[in-house]
Inverse folding.
C-alpha cells in the first residue's frame, strides 16, 4: 500500500466553509432540477418517497436536522444563532405547509464539530424526526454502512428558484457511498487503496466520501454523484433502512486542492514493473454521529424542555367567569 501526504486539507470550519456568504452549489453529476432539486417537487427526485421534511434551513443557509421533539443537529462552525429562524417544510411542495421556529439555544458536543440546537416549542408533528446511528465506531466497518448508498444534501446550482425566505428552499439532493474513514486522533485515511496522511490528527471520527468519476472501478460511480461545496456545512449524510432515512453524519470539511486526495480509483495495478496509476478525487468529510451519542444524549438531558402555555384550571375559569358576571352587573 502506497502512502501519499496531501499538502492541504480544506476544513469546512477552518478554510473552505468560512466562506459562508458564497452561494456555491453542491457539485452533483448529471444535475437537473427534476432529479435533484427538492422543491421542484417532481416525481423523479432521486430521494423518491423518503421524507425530507425534518431537514430545515435558515434564511442565510444554516442546516438543521430534527432528532427530537424540539431538538436538531447542525455543525458547530456553521449553525443558526439564538433567535434565528429555522424553516421546515412538510413536503417537497414549495406551496405546502411550512413551520418556522426561532432557535432558543444550543451547545457543541465536546471535541467535535457536532452542534445540538433546540427550540422553546415542539416542532409540528408533520415534520419528520430522524433516528441517527448510535454505534461507537473505530473503523468504517464498525459503522455498519461501509460502501452503503447514502444521500447528500446541499445548495442547488438552481439557487433560490423556488421562493421562500433566503435559502430556505435552496435544497439539492445527491448520491454517494460511505467509502472511507478518518479515525479520531489519527492522520491517515485510506483512499482507494492508498493511505493519505495529514499533518495533524483528526479531532473526531469522520465518514469520508469521494466524487467518483464514470469509469472508476474501486468505488461505484453514482449517476448523481455528489461533492460538498461552500454553504453545505452542517447538512446531513443519510443512509437507507427500509422506508426510513438514518442520519449518519454532518458535513464538516472538503479536500479539493490539486484535484483532491490520491488513490487508485481505476484499479489497473498489474505485475511489476507496471506503474502505479494514481488519480485524484475531491473528497467530503462528515462528522460521524455514532461515536458521540453519549455526548448528544447528555446535552439533550441538560437542555430545558419546551415552554408551553398551561391550560387554565377549572377554579381559575370559575373565577374569571365570576369577574365577568360582576363586570356585567356593574355596567347594567
Amino acid at each position: 500500500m502506497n502512502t501519499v501526504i496531501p499538502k492541504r486539507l480544506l476544513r469546512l470550519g477552518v478554510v473552505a466553509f468560512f466562506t459562508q456568504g458564497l452561494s456555491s452549489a453542491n457539485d452533483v453529476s448529471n444535475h437537473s432540477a427534476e432529479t435533484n432539486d427538492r422543491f421542484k417537487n417532481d416525481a423523479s427526485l432521486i430521494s423518491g418517497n423518503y421524507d425530507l421534511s425534518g431537514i430545515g434551513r435558515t434564511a442565510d443557509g444554516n442546516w438543521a436536522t430534527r432528532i427530537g421533539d424540539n431538538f436538531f443537529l447542525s455543525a458547530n462552525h456553521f449553525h443558526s444563532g439564538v433567535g434565528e429562524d429555522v424553516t421546515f417544510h412538510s413536503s417537497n411542495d414549495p406551496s405546502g405547509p411550512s413551520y418556522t421556529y426561532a432557535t432558543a439555544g444550543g451547545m457543541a458536543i465536546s471535541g467535535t464539530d457536532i452542534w445540538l440546537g433546540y427550540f422553546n416549542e415542539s416542532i409540528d408533528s408533520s415534520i419528520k424526526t430522524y433516528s441517527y446511528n448510535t454505534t461507537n465506531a473505530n473503523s468504517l466497518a464498525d459503522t455498519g454502512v461501509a460502501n452503503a448508498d447514502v444521500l447528500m444534501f446541499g445548495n442547488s446550482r438552481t439557487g433560490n428558484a423556488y421562493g421562500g425566505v433566503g435559502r430556505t428552499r435552496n435544497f439539492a439532493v445527491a448520491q454517494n457511498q460511505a467509502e472511507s474513514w478518518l479515525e479520531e486522533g489519527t492522520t491517515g485515511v485510506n483512499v482507494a487503496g492508498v493511505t493519505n496522511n495529514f499533518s495533524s490528527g483528526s479531532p473526531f471520527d469522520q465518514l469520508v466520501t469521494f466524487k467518483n468519476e464514470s469509469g472508476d472501478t474501486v468505488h461505484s460511480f453514482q449517476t448523481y454523484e455528489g461533492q460538498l461545496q461552500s454553504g453545505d456545512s452542517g447538512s446531513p449524510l443519510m443512509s437507507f433502512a427500509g422506508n426510513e432515512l438514518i442520519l449518519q453524519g454532518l458535513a464538516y470539511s472538503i479536500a479539493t486542492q490539486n484535484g483532491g486526495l490520491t488513490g487508485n480509483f481505476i484499479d489497473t495495478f498489474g505485475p511489476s514493473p507496471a506503474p502505479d496509476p494514481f488519480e485524484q478525487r475531491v473528497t467530503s468529510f462528515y462528522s460521524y454521529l455514532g461515536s458521540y451519542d453519549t455526548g448528544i444524549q447528555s446535552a439533550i438531558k441538560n437542555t430545558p424542555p419546551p415552554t408551553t402555555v398551561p391550560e387554565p384550571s377549572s377554579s381559575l375559569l370559575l373565577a374569571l367567569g365570576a369577574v365577568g358576571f360582576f363586570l356585567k352587573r356593574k355596567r347594567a
Notes: Residues 59 and 166 are 4 Å apart (CA to CA).
